[in-house]
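Researcher: Quick test of sequence recovery. Tokens follow.
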């Protein structure tokens, strides 16, 4: 699983999620998932290329990490979004503990291999 960017700003993310929750009734973020098929690094590259992720840095996690922390992963892509695009739903009401759990699931930012 890959997310674009390197932002690790708890307060800003909490604010964004609370605004989403108020407007849409859900709080969710986009991620990109490609089945590793034995080669985790190759799957990361494929996800970054398929979207394509424009950010210079990415953050990587596993589906198991997010599910283990109580997040729900949903295939809700629009017709024009990449096949690997998914939403991660936050528990509601959204709070600081969910934001901390989100960031704890991801490895530190690393260079986007599709932009190398």
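Model:
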């Amino acid at each position: 699983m890959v997310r674009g960017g390197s932002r690790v700003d708890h307060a800003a993310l909490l604010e964004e999620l609370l605004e989403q929750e108020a407007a849409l009734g859900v709080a969710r973020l986009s991620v990109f998932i490609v089945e590793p098929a034995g080669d985790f690094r190759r799957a990361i590259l494929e996800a970054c290329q398929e979207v394509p992720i424009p950010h210079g840095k990415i953050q990587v996690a596993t589906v198991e990490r997010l599910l283990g922390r109580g997040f729900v992963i949903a295939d809700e892509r629009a017709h024009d979004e990449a096949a690997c695009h998914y939403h991660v739903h936050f528990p509601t009401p959204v709070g600081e503990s969910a934001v901390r759990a989100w960031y704890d699931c991801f490895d530190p930012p690393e260079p986007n291999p599709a932009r190398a």
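The mean pLDDT is 92.
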